[in-house]
Request: fold
Amino acid sequence: MNFNFQDKNVLVTGASRGIGAGIIDRFLNYGAKVVATGTSDESVNKIKQNTNPNLYALTLNLNSKDSIKNLFTHLSDKELMPHILINNGGITQDNLILRMSDEEWDSVINTNLSGTFYMIKNAVKQMIKYKFGRIITISSVIGHTGNPGQVNYSASKAGLIGLTKSLAREVGSRNITVNAISPGFIQTDMTNKLDDNQIENLLKSIPLKRLGTIDDVVSSTLFLSSDLASYITGETIHVNGGMFMS
Reply:
């Protein structure tokens, strides 16, 4: 399918690898101007290995309101405020609840949930002026099923679903759609570290009997950003091979 985003600015967080890197590549291929963020100079330099002139790589700390504010000030000055916001950035700090420190809880909630809130809050005013907006947030199957040792991560990802639904009701009349994507186990650097036995056990819970690909998730972001999805809002697309069915 041939999408066209030539008149759109796209902002993608967590874009230095995996799903985020796949998202920026595809949007660039379809003509968008893409602002991609990473958490460090190293990750930003990794993004800059793509030399497309429509790609702008910037440092962002989702755990800092000041960092987010400074990002949007820069985007406003450069006339790069997003028509499409893809909240992909996030972290994990796993531990059983009896061992989980306050810092492990706060860091994950502040980055994954609060950081996404502040990204949206800074972006949505300009979307209202554009009379157009697409907000897509990457949640997780873990936000629906839970997982031992991930109460912080699961809570943050479940919170993003509630945020998505409520925001969709608030801004729908402004021609802004708000949706979420909940990937299951996607083949990335993280899953590449699993051994054959761990992969085999994972596949037992997946009806399609394979891990997802980055492109499986990227295709959903393209669809939700396009005119094809203009009447879809407040929804979650589950990209998990049938592991979870709502």
Remarks:
- The chain has a mean pLDDT of 96.
- Helices lie at 18-29, 41-47, 65-77, 102-130, 142-145, 151-171, 196-203, 214-225.
- The first strand starts at residue 9 and ends at 12.
